[in-house]
């Protein structure tokens, strides 16, 4: 099985413009994500997908392969699909395209390797990483997408509201999980997804993976015990910096993790 990792990134974030090239511990955000991905085993190629020359310049200045894409994509999955159209010609239909959003700064090699393993074992068309929600304030935060699963790990539903109900789950061994922007697709399904019509629940929740479930395609959830964070705001940047300082992976690609 071949695996290509695509890291979509763009400058035009509404809540944090320019975040991919925001420096954290002296290194641009998108380069943290790239370096943490390259430490994983099983990835045959890693590319950053962007429509912005500023990101291209930063990445190529560090020897990172960049694919330039259209600037009209509605989401990162669409940008990833265009990237595979351009560079994935040697992939078989059941080879894996691993999308790691360019703000998933706490991605770790073991998380990626577990996704590759789950895909090989389940052959689900989509495999999505989920992590525990550590902050109580994130339970009600609509920017944090929650997911619940079946007993075999298949996704049942995604929502921006708390699921399962915190009041009823408090005394049960059912953790509240957040969806991450780390999603593996078979090459075949990546192209299928782009052809599916937008679905009612997807539009209500504004969560594109609900389109997959509503069209009756399974999503296998891979859980990690480690906290993750997508850097969406300047406050997230500060929180991520503290997490990086405490994370042993950081020193694997930074000579010294400087103090704040």
Task: Indicate the CATH topology.
Answer: Spore Coat Polysaccharide Biosynthesis Protein SpsA, Chain A
Structural class: alpha/beta
| Low-pLDDT residue intervals, each spanning 5 or more residues | none
CATH architecture: Alpha-Beta Complex
Report the major sheet. 9 strands, mixed
Q: Which overall shape is indicated by the principal axes computed on the Cα atoms?
A: globular
Share of helix, binned: 25-40%
Q: What is the string of SSEs from the N terminus onward? A: EEEHEHEHEHEHEEHEHHHEH
State mean pLDDT (0 to 100 scale): 94
**Amount of beta strand:** 15-25%
The CATH C-level class name:
Alpha Beta
| Total count of strands | 11
Report how far the terminal alpha carbons are from each other.
42 Å
Give the SSE map.
Blueprint: E1 3-8, E2 23-24, E3 27-28, H1 29-38, E4 45-50, H2 53-60, E5 66-68, H3 76-87, E6 96-100, H4 109-122, E7 126-132, H5 136-139, E8 146-149, E9 155-159, H6 166-169, E10 177-186, H7 187-195, H8 200-205, H9 209-214, E11 219-223, H10 234-245
Parallel strand pairs: 1-4, 1-6, 4-5, 7-11
Antiparallel strand pairs: 2-3, 6-10, 7-10, 8-9, 8-10
Helix pairs in contact: 3-7
Please give a quick description of this structure.
It is built from 10 helices and 11 strands. It is of the alpha/beta class and 260 residues long.
Provide structural commentary.
- The chain is of the alpha/beta class.
- The chain is about 35% helix and about 20% strand.
- Strands 1, 4, 5, 6, 7, 8, 9, 10 and 11 form a nine-stranded mixed beta sheet that branches. The chain has a two-stranded antiparallel sheet with strand order 2-3.
- The longest helix is centred in the middle third of the chain and has 14 residues, at about 110-120.
- The chain is globular and about 50 Å long.
- Helix 3 crosses helix 7 (about 185-195).
- The protein has a single domain (about 5-230, about 240-250), classed as Spore Coat Polysaccharide Biosynthesis Protein SpsA, Chain A, CATH 3.90.550.10.
- It has helices at about 30-40, 55-60, 75-85, 110-120, 135-140, 165-170, 185-195, 200-205, 210-215, 235-245, and strands at about 5-10, 25, 25-30, 45-50, 65-70, 95-100, 125-130, 145-150, 155-160, 175-185, 220-225.
